[in-house]
Structures are given as structure tokens and as C-alpha cells.
Amino acid sequence: MLTVIWGALAARRAQALAVLLLAVLASAAAAAAPSYVAAAGQALARYEVSRATPNELRLRLADPVEYPGVPGDPARTPFADMVKKLTPAGFEVVLGAQSGGVAAGRDGTVTSSLVFRAGVCERVTVAGACPRATSRGQLPEVMVGTHTAARLGVAVGDQFTFGAVPVRVAGIYQPLDATDPFWLGAEYIRPAAAGPTGTSAVGSAEDAIFTAEAAPLTDDQAILYRSTADLYVTERLFDTRSVADLRAAVTVVTRDGSREGLGGGTSLSSLLDRVALQRGQLADGVTLGAGLLVLLCWLVLFVAVGSAADQRRPEQGLLLLRGVQRRRLWALAIGEHAIPALFAIPLGCLGGLTAATLLAAHTLPARADVTVDATVIGFAAIGALGALAAVLLTQARMLSAPVVDLLRRVPARVRGWRATIGDVVAVSVAVAAVVQLRSGGSPSGLALVAPVAGALAAGLLLARVTMIAGGAVGGALLARGRTAGGLALVQVARQPRFRPLIALLTVVVAMLAFTVATSEVASAAYRDRAIVEVGAPRVVEVGATSRSHLLAAVRAADPEGRFAMATVVTGSSSAAGTPLLAVDSDRLATVARPHSSYGMSLADVERKIRPTAPGAPVHLRGRLLTIVISASFDAEVFGGNRVRLAVTVSSANGTRVATSRQDIEPGRKGYVLQVPECAQDCRLVKIDIVAPVVSRNLEVRFEEMRTGDEDGEHETMVLTGAQFADITRWRLTDPDDTFLDATSGTDVALILTVPENRRATPAGIAVADAPFPLPVYLTRSTGTPLGGTHPYDGVDGTPTTALVGGVADRLPRLGGSGLVVDLEYADRLAVASQSGKEEVWLTGTAPVDVLDRLRAQGLVVQSERTITGVRQDFDRQAPALALRFNLFAALAGVLIGAAGLIAMAAAEQRARVAMLVALRRQGLPPRAVRGGYGLPAAVAAVSGGLVTVVIWLLTRSGQRLFSDGRSPVPLPDWPDVGRLLMFTMPTIALFALTAVVLGRVVAASVRRRSGR
Amino acid sequence: MLNMDGVSVGYGDAPAVLTDISVTVRPGRVLALTGSSGAGKTTLLNAMAGLLRPRDGSVTVDGRPLRDRDHAVEHRIVLIPQDNGLAPILTAAENLQVALVAGGVTPPEALRQTAAMLDLLGLAGQADQLVEELSGGQQQRTAVARGLALRGGVLLADEVTS
């Protein structure tokens, strides 16, 4: 049998080679997917590691016992032995020890930590030297940060005390890279505090003070320290171990460490979760492209080998006629094709690896190694064996056909259920896949290949329609004497093997268009989401001492409002709350990036949220504030229930409540409050009468307000009685239960009446220097109509109410839910310092030194995001990487489609040429000799377009574009047609060119054989 | 009138199959050619039909040398080949129709003649069947019908009754 198989291979070398090549292609396509997933998984892990917070990269173990002495190297302690025993393979361990305390130097003190940390000297630049181990009796050596040295007033060689222990400064350090996970974020290098001394230097006075390996003290009891070990996860670990392995290792360390009594903590699991999620999404996303490639390869084999098999029907018939058993024919068919399929597995592995390597090099955000593993070999085998199955399936009909049928040159048409079973299966699978995809949730299983399944089913149906229509039209053309066109049509339409070819080309065109469309929409979605979520071309998160500091600093850095805007963003802690964006509204339209999805213009927002204030703010300047009050209440009835005066003031350092030391007593009296923050300037927010129990009516007359200093100098009248009595200046903080009135004449004053039995909240008057309720622009999703009032937590977190001045579909930075207010007004209404994220929004044209300008105003620059950067981040996530693989697969599919057309033509060329030669001998003119291969290409163009629309409508909603789910910005409904055509037109042109060349080959062959 | 004068024909570089053959086919006459298998009957007909160019001698139609098969078709030399020469993907009627239209008959006339000729040969019921679906005899009769429908000046029929 082997000899016969070898003979068959030798006799049909071309076909064996075609099967080998196509099986290699299928095998390579199948192998490329897991190779790419593995490589991209590595790159994703590296990317996630690069973005992880330091705490997400390490697992900390801490010695339960505190030891006396200066923190030193715990390497030779039982703790280190225990850590060594517990540490899983591959984790990097950094041993340390630390002790909290207060350092006191010549110029000041600072609360800090005395720390030993292995390897610190390699990560700093030092003026002086790294601390060296000292012996008992010597002063321990330490290394302090630049800011700490400045605060303590020490230089190299100086001394200071930590706790009660004198230490010597061996060096003053600056971290080489403060973002190195070694520093554990803010644990050792603390962020600088905002304020007038804002600086660009990293760190603060609270930075860790580092010690040497050993520094025994005479009096060990002076300091207590605790040993620590940080177990770092490395990029290499993600390359070599699965996330599940790492998670198990972390669980074991945590459990065993806890058993041993070690303290610890980690956020490593959140990093592992992210990596696992991204890898899972990548594998799911790549399934579509891999499925497409493998399906196309199998289809091409089905088409090509099926056509070749048809040409051998008489040969098979003769063999059967001569008594050869069918099982031997089966064995021959299997053997003849199994050999190329088996050879295809290793070659496919290599091909898949090569493709994955090339693709990885061009698409992945970080370096990744492409390697062969069992999964790759397994997928390559599936691809090759699937190819073998496709080959055998094409021959099944021939090998089971009656002898009489085999002896016919053209196979009898398949009728009955057999003719439609393939279509029924394809349509059923497609329907199931689409239904599963549209049923919601995360796509899995069949839903992942829904577009391919849909394209195949639609392609098969359209191919069937094409065959019927082509046959009918061709026949009609022949009857009308249009011989050339009619012949070209019927040559294809009456040859059943062309049906899978047409379906194949349709799938190729449709999937290319679909993949390009998805990529296009993804690209637009990444851009849109980045614009909306970032809000402005550049957004710098800063630290400011207060909202007013932020506002003033940004206005000082950009006095003309051309490129910078102060904003505060608060997310609501309660699910029912509304996130808030407070902006320096005059600059909103200039700085924020507009977007069509907002459904409003930023200039409108500016106008609506910044109406004229009802009154001017009341500014105070002086350390002491005196308020002259005439109170009227029955002190006896109030008994021991105190009535107190509280004033809320807002300065550059925040908002604070100052309370009078003296309780309010009946009669006229000046009450003095300490307001040191008002020495330069501050703003009066409100005056409260704090009376927990109001037994009888309480009336308070505000008659005067003065500021001054402790020494009695610089006394200034802030408000006279007449100014107090202007009730338009004031707003009752509780208009339901308190009353405001004014007197005139000589005893002009403002009167606040608190009725008896009022509930126990402060009764107060706030300066009406901002509209209340504050006008806001609100997102439509909240349901509050235009002109309505909407409850929300103010910029200081205090519950309040807004007046809806405009409704938007979306808001910059907040997306589909939130409201935007004017920051200055919101700050004036705020009664507490608490604030959200303080940000400075910048235009793309902001000067290069803008960050220095902000620092010069005392802001601390913490982080920066740009629309471009966020968009690139989206582009580096698993769905984007999967899309790139799928686009590669779709482009490879175009070549497979062209190969299919060529293979089909090659297989049936002999019969076609023979027929055309016969017709030429009967007088058929040479111009009527055409290949007819243009029809599949033309049909593929049209049906590919139709199928693209169908699968786009049915499955686009199920395509994952973002790793964290849906974008708050609606996705474009349709892709950019121009770009779509840029990919599809060359594809159709390639098919058309292939068809023309194949037609010319046929015509040339006919010419040769017919003598002209 | 089709005339062969001292014709020698062969295939490729192989020795000539027929040498020094002279035949004259006159209008209105039936000429039968017999011989044992491999004697060269089909080769001679192919040379007369313009499919084989003679190595020596000449083939003339009405006194003018026959160049090739297209030239023979122009001079209405019809050939019914041994293998019928039918296109399997066309119906019986279409095989006639294509040949008639190629011969210059208008499509409606070609349709009429096709129907008439198929009817004459008892193939009216098979007109719309693909050739692949016809029996061997029906295929042969279809080829004969096509040959007759073309109404050639010379009809060369190769083993049409076998």
C-alpha cells in the first residue's frame, strides 16, 4: 500500500505540493494564534508591570517583634531565614528594617523614619558618602535627603538626633529615579507639600533617613525597629509562570507567613487580576482572526482538492470497475494526503512562529519572546489535521459514488437534503453564534467567532443564489446570441465546485472589511474616549493647599487665560451621587477640548454656570476678627445651654471654622475670634450662631465687624451696621427655621432670629457672594429636567442643591453622568476644606515651562495625563492587540483567497480548455474564449459588501474594544468609508487581476491547442 | 469542392501517418472512408477539417489552400468529431445554438433551427438537459444535430454511427 501511496504522490506531485502548502498555511495560521497570544501576553504583563503602583509589585513580610537599636541589615537573623524559606522562586527580595520617630536638627524637627534598606546606595546620588557600619561607641552614620537636610539644618559631617540617639550625617542623597518600585511610592520618598515654597526637586523633608548595615548603640533601648522583607514580582516571572501560579504562590506566602506570625500586606493580587483579565481578553479576541485563517485554509483545501478530485472521477470509476475495493481507495486517499498533512505540522509551527514574531515585533507595546510550546504544536496539529479532514471530506462523495456515476466526466448534481445540509449547518452555527453574542455579557465560545460564522453562512447562501442566477442569466445570454458573456457565466455557474470558492472569496472580502471597520471604529473610540475622559489636551494633577490656592496659582501662571484652567473633580462615594467637575469657567471653552458627544457647546456652559454674583465677597485682613453683636435671649431659661459664635473663613490654606472663646451673652458685646490665616487675606464664608438647645426665641443683632492684629494695631472696619443691615449681602444657611431682618436708623443692624425649640443645627448667615442654588450643567442621564433642582455633594463634599441651567449628553472628564459648576462660586459656597482631585487643564499650546510656572506658584505637580497618552494606553490593551492580529489574519486571508482562486483554476483548467477547444473547432470565435474567473471576483466584491453590512449590524456590538468594558462615549455607528475602501479596493483589484491572468492563461492554452 | 492533393500528415516529429493522399470531395456526394483501427481515418478527416496542417501536398477548398480550422469553418466545412466535441456544461440546445450563432446565424433563427434539428433527431425532450445528463447515444445524436444544423458545404463525420 505504501508503494501505491508513494506512486500516487509521485504521479500527482502538483496536487500533493498544493495540499502540503495549504496544510502548512492552515497549520501556521493555527500555530500563529497561540504564539502571538503568548508573546502579547508577555508584553501585556510587562506593560501592566510598568504601570503598576509600587505596592502592586511587592508582597511585604514584617517581623512581628520590634528590636531595640538602630535599624540594621536583618540578613543574618531568623527573620531573614524565614523569609528565605517562604520566598517563592523568582521573586526578588529586598530586606530592610525601619523605625519611626522624630529627627531633630539645628534648624528644626521632622517626623520621619530611620531605615535600613538593602541596595539603597546603588539607587541614589550622594553628596558625601553612603553610611558605613560603625562599632559600639561610635556615632551611627546616616544618609538624609536634600529636603530633610535643609529642614534640620545639617550638612555632611554634622550631627542630629533621631529619637534620643545622636547620629552623624555621612551623606545627603537624591534618589536616581523616584518612580523605581524600590522606593515603594511615597513610603520612603514622600511627595512635597504644596505651598509658597513649591519646588521641582523630588521628595520632601519627611523622606526616609537611611542607616548602615550595623550601628550598635550603647543604649539599645533608645530606638525600636522592625525588620521587613519586600518580595518583588519581576517581569521575568510573568514570562515564565502563569498568573494562576503566581496567585497561588502569593496565597501560599501570605498563608505561611501568617502561620509563622509574620505581618504582611500586598496589592499584588490586583495586578495579577489585571494581567489575567488582559490575557484572557487577548486570547478571546485573537480567536476571531485565528478562526478566520484556519477556516479559510480549510475552505481553500476543500475547493482545490475537491476540484482536482473531480478530474479523477473516471479514474476512480475504472478502478472500482476493475474490482478494487472501496476501502483500499479510502486508504489510498487518506495516505496520499496524510503524508503532506503530517509534514505540514512542523513546517506550520515554524511558519506560525515566524508570523507571530514578525507581528509581535510590529504591534506589541513591549518586547516579547515568541517560543514553541505544547500549545503551539497542538494548535498546529489541529490546523493540519483539519486540513486533512477537509481534503477527505471533498473526496467522500466521490469515493462513495456509484461506479456508473464516477465514469461520467462531470459529477451528477447533488439533489435533496444532501445539497443543502452544508448550508443548513453553516447557517445554524452562525445563528447560534450571533444569538449567543447578542445575548449580552462577555463573549465566549461560539460568540467569539460570530462574525466569521455569519460571513461563512451568508457567503454560502449568496454563493448559492449566484450560482442559480448566474446559470439562468448565462443561459439567457446564450439564447440571445451573447455567446462570450453567456459562456463565461455558465462556465462558473454550472460548475458546483465554484460555489465554495465564491463563498470563500466572499468571506475574505467581508472579514477584511469587517476587521478594518472594527479597527477604524476602535481607533475613533479610543480617540473619543481619551478626549472625553481626559477633558483637555494635557491634564496635570497637582497638590494645592486649597481650592482658592489652586485658582489663584493657575490664574497667576496664565493671567490671560490662554492655556491653563484650574479644575477640581470629585467622584461621588455613594452610588446615587453625582460626580462633579468644578472649573474656572471663563477658561473652559479655551482650554477644554470640545467633543460632539457632549451635546452642548462649552461656550454655553461658560455662560450658564457663571452668572453675575449677587454680591461681593467679604475679605478679611488681620489675625483677629471682632464681631459686635447684641444678643437677646433669656439666659436663665437657656440655663447651661451655651450660645456660641462661629465664623467660617476661607484662605489660601483652606477653609476653617473659628469659634469665639466667649459664649454669646445677652446684650451688646464685641466677640473676638483668632483667625491667623487671615493675616494676609481671607474671605468670610459664614457666621453661625451655635446653640444646641434653643429654649426660647433667640435674637442676634450683628452690628459691626472689624479686623486687627493682636497688638491692637491695623484695626480695620470690615462691615458697619449699615453694611450688615443690607440683607441682600446675606443668605440664611437654614431659611426654613431662621429669619433675617434689618433695622434702620441709629441702631442699624442685621437681625437673625432663631425661634424656640429649633433643631440643634447652627443657625447662620452666609455671605451671598455666589448664586445659590448654584447653576450647573447636568448630564441628561440623571433625569433632572432643565430648570429643575438637583441634589448633589458640593465641591467640599457637603450635600447641597443645584439649579439645572443646562443639560448635556456628556461632560468632559465625567462622561455620561455628572455636573459641571463654576469652581470659584463652588468654592465660595463651600464650608469645608475637603476637596476632590485638583487638576490643571492645559491646552496643547501651553508653554514648555508651564509646569515650572505652576510649581513657582506653590503647586505640587503629581502626575500628568494627555489625550494622546491615554489614547496610546487604549491602543496597548488586549482588545487593541487582538484587533491587530485579526487585521493581520484578514490580510493573510486575502492571499489565501487569491491562492484559492489559482488552485481552483489550476485544478479544472484541463477540462475547461478541452471544452473551449471543442467549441472553437465548431467555430466559436477566439474573442468568446474567456476564463470566466472574473465572476467569482465580481460576486465576492458585491456579496462581500453585503455580508459586511449584515455581520456589522449583527455583531459589532459584541466586539470588545476596551479591556474595562464599554466606553462612556457612544461608538461610531459606521467606520470611515474612505479607509474601508483603501483596504478592500486593493483586495478586489488583486482578485480581479488574478482572474484576468488566469483567463489569459486559459485563452493562451486554447489558442495553442486549437492552432490559433 | 474540397480537394487533397499528394498530402502527407503526421503528429509532431513522428513519422508521417499518411503519405501522398489525394482525395476530392464533390458537392452533393457522400464519401465513405473505411479502414482498420489506426489506419489514419481520423487523421485524414482532421487534415480535411483544417485541424492538421499537411507536411506535404495541399488541401484546397474551391481551389484555395485551406489554412486552418477557422478558415475551414469560414468555408463551411463542418466536423462531427469522434468524441462528439460537445461542451458538457451546456445544454443540448445551447451546444447547437452556440455553434449556429458562431456561424453567423441570427439568434432567433438559431433558436428555431436548433429546435427543429433536435426534434428531427428525436431530442426535443432533451433540449434543455445538460450534455452531462444525456446518455452516450443522445450525446452522439446531439453532435449530429449540430453538424446538420450548421448546413455545411462539407460535412465530415467521424465514426458517427459507432
Automatic annotation (TrEMBL), chain A:
Its main location: membrane. Residues 290-393 form the ABC3 transporter permease C-terminal domain. It is a multi-pass membrane protein. It comes from the Bacteria. Keywords: Cell membrane, Membrane, Signal, Transmembrane, Transmembrane helix. Residues 1-32 form the signal peptide. The chain crosses the membrane at residues 288-309, 329-356, 376-396, 417-435, 455-479, 500-517, 885-907, 928-954, 980-1003. It is found in: Cell membrane. Belongs to the ABC-4 integral membrane protein family. This is ABC3 transporter permease C-terminal domain-containing protein. It comes from Micromonospora trifolii.
